[in-house]
Give the backbone structure.
Amino acid sequence: MYLMTHRPFSGDIVPFDRPIDVYPHAFEPARLVVAAARCWVTARKEAIATKASLYDLLAPFGCEAMTMSFDKLMALFQECLARPIQLGDAFLSSDEQALVDLINRMEAAGAYTDCLEIKAVALECRRYLRNSKI
């Protein structure tokens, strides 16, 4: 995994028009969010337990307590999209960017006004990231 240093949650976002790997520092929380989102979507597609997959990914970063919140956030996010979440590859997809924005700056929260619970769950995930070992 590429998230190694401890840095406070900066609120910075990873632009989706550049590969995620060109940001070697300062974006560790966003990278973890993207990695967790990709883990969750992949687990769902492969019919694997999402919570167990997320726990295995998040535990090394001291974020295992975030497992339930992130699982709930992803389910709500997909429900609000009314379609499956699209993943990126070396570049972030627009869905991944929206998720990062939602957690980092709550910018996307207005787009999900029909899903009242999503803002509270996103804030909970943000608190976990701020208190993590990242």
About this structure: DSSP finds five helices and no strands in the chain. The longest helix spans residues 28-45. Helices lie at 28-45, 50-58, 67-81, 94-105, 117-130.
